[in-house]
Write a structure and sequence with these properties.
heterodimer; A: 211 residues; 8 helices; 77% helix; flat; B: 0% strand; Chromate_transpt (chain A); CHR_Transporter (chain A); transmembrane helix (chain A)
Chain lengths: 211, 177
């Protein structure tokens, strides 16, 4: 029993160490990080095989939340149950948590520095560009026909001109999706609900939500 | 205050489909509703969050929590936004549904994805324009547009790494402004 507990602690510690290392590398976006996870988990540690990695990617892309945290949860759970999942999530979050603090501390230190103000303005413009890129990728993955185009237009208009809470849009989108697919099936029409996936378009299928 | 932060970011985390930038819109609405931060302070937080590795959504939550209630607030907000994903993914992993081949999941995601696109587009509009009140054709706005266009070119045409783009634009900001 004691031996078992020690083995479990050791497993949790090694899960923690691996994800602590992966955390700071989540710079290039969640799907860039998948490559790092594959390298560490599949090739080096041999904790999972390629097929399990595929399952993991599909689950962490569909569940709410960021791909990085979701992947860590999935792998941690598979290896060490709930404790493993918690260890992996803490490990992948902690480095960025500390870096965010460091940055905001530095920001306070240089509060009235003209150069820092200017640099932040530049970064602001860059973040806008990153958001536009993300929107473009998501557009390609989501706008498949007239209905999906209308959904984008309606949701954007509601956000711009009303104070609607995004929660209702999300619920509305989920409902609309089911209704439209059902309606078309009743009329004997099948519709494409997803972009056809090829290896090259994986980038489109999994847009970099998570930059 | 800590419970409030935990509760509000838990709600945000629960519907944070699409991660990242779509969630910025969700957070912005919550923050505006609570009257926690003005628009300028919120934008500055998002800029800082974009500089750090990791999810811009989680980083934003951390910084907002910190601004409202110090280190404890930062922890409460971060835990709040992550907890729903943790619970849901464990649930899925435990019962192991083959999610993407499920008909219901496929059809609801068909409707969900356009909404996420709308949320991200709104984030771009809101984040891009709400700082520019008053006169339109200012030196600052022109410089911002220039940097933004340059970044778009670098990312989409030359596939430059986002972090390198952020560093370059910081330098460009110092030169221009």
């Amino acid at each position: 029993m004691k031996q078992n507990a020690r083995g479990k602690m050791k497993l949790l510690w090694s899960i923690f160490c691996v994800f602590f290392k992966i955390g700071p590398s989540t710079f290039g976006g969640g799907y860039a990080m998948i490559a790092t996870i594959e390298e560490e988990i599949v090739r080096k540690k041999r904790w999972m095989n390629e097929a399990e990695m595929g399952d993991m990617i599909s689950v962490s892309g569909s569940a709410p939340g960021g791909v990085a945290v979701n992947s860590a949860t999935f792998i941690g759970y598979r290896l060490g149950g709930v404790a493993g999942a918690v260890a992996a999530v803490i490990a992948i979050t902690l480095p960025t948590f500390l870096i965010v603090f460091l940055l905001s501390g530095l920001r306070l230190l240089f509060k009235d520095n003209v150069k820092v103000e200017a640099a932040l303005k530049g970064i602001h413009a860059a973040v806008v560009a990153l958001i536009i890129v993300a929107a473009g990728k998501m557009w390609k993955a989501s706008v498949l026909d007239a209905v999906t185009f209308a959904l984008v237009a309606v949701s954007l208009a509601l956000l711009l001109f009303t104070q609607i809470h995004p929660f209702y849009l999300i619920v509305g989108g989920l409902t609309a999706g089911v209704l439209v697919v059902q309606y078309n099936q009743k009329r004997g029409k099948s519709i494409v609900t997803e972009q056809v996936r090829t290896e090259e378009s994986r980038d489109l299928q999994f847009p970099e939500y998570y930059i | 205050m800590l419970w409030e932060l935990l509760y509000i970011f838990f709600k945000v985390g629960l519907v944070s489909f699409g991660g990242g930038y779509a969630v910025i819109t969700l957070i912005q609405r919550e923050v505006a509703g609570q009257g926690w931060l003005d628009s300028g302070a919120f934008q500055e937080i998002v800029s800082l969050a974009g500089m750090a590795p990791g999810s811009i959504a989680t980083n934003t939550a951390t910084l907002i929590g910190y601004s409202q209630a110090g280190v404890g607030g930062a922890i409460a907000a971060t835990v709040g936004i992550i907890l729903p994903s943790l619970i849901i993914v464990i649930g899925i992993a435990a019962f192991f549904l083959k999610l993407q081949s499920n008909k219901w999941v496929r059809s609801s995601f068909y409707g969900l994805r356009p909404i996420v696109t709308g949320l991200i587009l709104y984030a771009a509009v809101h984040f891009g324009f709400s700082g520019t009140s008053g006169s339109w054709l200012t030196w600052t706005l022109a410089g911002s547009l220039l940097i933004c266009a340059g970044c778009l070119l670098l990312i989409s045409k030359y596939k430059v790494h986002p972090f390198a783009v952020i560093l370059l634009s910081a330098v460009a900001g110092i030169v221009i402004f």
